[in-house]
Amino acid sequence: MNIKTFFIALNILLFVSLIVYSQNDVKVDLKKKSRTFNHPPMKDYGLKEYIYLSKDLPHSENKPWKLVCQMPYNCHFQPWIELESTEGKEVSLNSSNPLVLYLTKTEKYTTIAGKQTYEAKNWVSGEGAVYTIPAGVTVKSVKYRETGYDTKFAGSFECNDNDFNILWKKGARTAYLCMRDWFYDCPDRERVGFWGDGTPELNQCFYAFDSVSHALCKDLVLRPLQKGFYPGQQLEFLGQYGLWFYYMQTGDIKSISAVYESTRSFLFDTYKFGKKNQWFDWGKDIKDAAVMENCFMYIDLKSLKKMALLTGHSSDTLAINLKLDSIKSTFNSSYWKGNYYMSSQVTTPDDRANAMAVNAGLADSSKYEAIYNNVLTKYTNASCFFDRWVFEALCTMGKQEYALLRMYNRYKTMIPASFTTLWEHYDRWWASWKNTYDDASSLNHGWNPPVIILSQIIAGVSPVEAGWSTFHVFPKEAFLTSLKVVVPSIKGDIKVEMNKTTTEYSLNIISPVNTKAIVGIPKGSFSSIKSIEVNGITIWNGSYLGGVKGISWNGEDTEYIKFNANSGKWNFIGTGTLPISSPKSLPMAPDNELLLDKKTWSAWASVKDSLFLFSGAKIPIQVPAANAIDGDHWTGWRDMTRTQYPGQWLKIDMKKKQKFNKFVLDNTWAQWDSPDKFSVSVSNDDKNWGTPIATGEGKPGISVITFPMQNSRFIKISQMGTDTTYNWSVYEIDVFRTR
Fold first, then answer.
1. Counting CB atoms within 10 angstroms of each CB, which of 275, 492, 522, 703 has the fewest?
2. What percentage of the chain carries pLDDT values higher than 70?
3. What is the secondary structure of 360-395 as a DSSP string?
4. In order of start, what are the domains of the chain with their CATH numbers?
5. Terminal CA-to-CA distance of the chain, rounded, Å?
6. Is the CB of residue 243 less than 8 Å from the CB of residue 252?
7. What angle (nearest 5°) sits at the alpha carbon of residue 738, between those of residues 732 and 739?
8. How many CB atoms lie within 10 A of CB 446?
9. pTM here?
10. What is the three-class DSSP state of 592?
């Protein structure tokens, strides 16, 4: 066994051990808690029509065949089928998402004679269903039953840059998909209740869903801590990002009182510094855990002090203060290296560690520029789980423009993807251990943070007092020129709309009854500011003038000119000079084009249809050429004979001549299998191909290929390059004609 094979085998063993450990040690406790807190039942959305079928129904064939069906978004579902058959035929039903095979075997149904219906007994997740139909069976209709946690999408975020709108919506859908019995890490591969995944999922509930979702949040707050189960994740949860976040959103003193003693015990007695396998992040292995754990402990102790005062444990504050002082007094001398924080555990600075020093308040503002220039703009060790804290630190430092740019650049392959959820890893890249493409990473993982970052920090809507009796609106919109957000607080919906031009900054706020808003007009949005009016009356022209009932002065700092606003509707307008420019291009508007219907097409390739053994579980996945045109971006064709080599081809017969001038090769599922180099040719007889109509290099995930309008029947895509690491795949090809 060579060293590469050894490490791959070791990683598989560790991964499987993680799943087994997680399921054995977490699920039992969570099941007990689910019964204890009497969750509302799962919502049954009823039987629904698929939005796309790979065959028109009714349909039958004289050989076994597959029917591939699409839902409008990723969801929990049970496939349903109506058919006519003789007795004893076996029909199979499952999701097109191969990860579900980790937990849920493909369901099989044996037919009786005549007309009949069948609905799968177990729910699965995904964006498509696959029915495997025996020869001679007629499928008359198919549907799916969607179920899910009984909460509504009550929050929203919109801005003038649709890339961020897509991120918010995909983030909310991802969070919802990871809610059911408890907060899942993902609904397909594991369904484990890690504290790490649970933290951003809890956060997002208060900005994306209605108050019914708060029951799951309360469960996580009250869940008994588990010694040895990734203590770093529990440390991340026990301060302002978990326990205190929940309290500020709900004002639920009873739950905070219930967990005070166990939280204090964990922070003072259970947690041990410097232990291996604490787990702070999934990302690259340059993890400066020594700095991170000091930062999170400091954050947790500050929250513990507030909890002590809140719950009648004020006598504990002396010990808490001593522990806080011991961290603060040695932090800079131990870890500050002149331009960044770094411990002896690593040889290069870690973006995660330096971000947490900012978030914890252990890095004072004099260090911000050095951290920004030397670390946060140069390193991307953080996974999409931990980047939440990097984005936050950048905004704290006044670098919200770069926070948005970093968010866009890190999510740039997820934004245009046909998948409606956010993934476990950026670019499907397993940074830890293997440092390579990970086919078994989930494509709907709850730890992604865009919802909380965009609603709470970029839009700037956050509680100041527990239960939203007072909240602030401090936008950090950077280069965005408009945004609109709805936050479903327990006091009612808070609505904020911002628009800015070169001369005016408008901020409209609807504040619910029995709340007070602290509204900040951001100085950084202006090069010069002349006046501020509210509901048409000037209240500031360099100093506070007053004159509007329900509005009072709240002061001024380096970032904002601030006012108190009682409940009601308020329109703040700041006038002056505003620089309107952006380092990021706005996304292109969709082309006016027609997607050609593929239902009758056929496809074949330069190699025989085959399968591959999926992930460490060695699950056999069929990858025939027909998958490339079945309408499902989770299923695809792969050449499994060897890695990329010149001369591979995939052909498509459209059955008749058609006009077209654009292809989209979608390889998002097998992102790094995009062609090294490609050539596209067309023909009317599958013999005379002529000069290629397009050549180029594939891009990870999606390759868009345009060319002059063609009128042909056959299409041949050839792979002309070499890649010694990755196979060539086409997970879906879409063919378009400009209208």
1. 275
2. 95
3. HT-S-GGGHHHHIIIIITT-----TTTHHHHHHHHH
4. 3-40+154-458 (1.50.10.10), 44-148 (2.60.120.260), 471-577 (2.60.420.10), 593-738 (2.60.120.260)
5. 57
6. no
7. 130
8. 30
9. 0.94
10. coil
* Strand pairing category for 528-534 and 560-577: antiparallel
Half-sphere exposure for 684 (CA within 13 Å, toward CB)? 6
Residue 288 and residue 353 in contact, taking contact as beta carbons nearer than 8 Å: yes
Residue 735, H or E segment: strand 732-738
> Residues near 4 by Cβ (< 8 Å), separated by ≥ 6?
none
State which H helix or E strand residue 70 sits in.
strand 65-85
Pair 622, 675: CB distance under 8 Å: no
DSSP category for residue 336: B
| Amino acid, single-letter form, for residue 83 | L
Alpha helix (H) residue ranges in 561-695: none
Structure token pair of residue 22 = 């997680």
User: Residue 314: exposed, middle, or buried by beta-carbon count in 10 A (0-12, 13-18, 19+)?
Assistant: exposed
Smallest CA-to-CA distance from 495 within 512, 514, 510, 517 is with 510
Residue 180 CB contacts under 8 Å (≥ 6 apart), including other chains = 42, 76, 148, 149, 187, 191
State which amino acid sits at residue 431. Answer: A
Distances (CA, A) of 56 to 60, 140, 274: 10, 10, 61
Concatenate the DSSP letters of all residues of 23-53 into one string.
Answer: IIIIIHHHHHHHHHTTPPPPEEEEEE--SEE
Nearest Cα neighbor of 190 from 17, 344, 19 is 19
Q: How big is the CA angle at 637 (ends 636 and 641), to the nearest 5 degrees?
A: 140
How far apart are alpha carbons 159 and 228 in whole angstroms?
A: 43
Bridge partners (DSSP) of residue 463 are: 471
The whole-angstrom separation of Cα 645 and Cα 625 is: 18
Q: pLDDT tens digit string along 621-645? A: 999 999 999 999 999 999 999 999 9
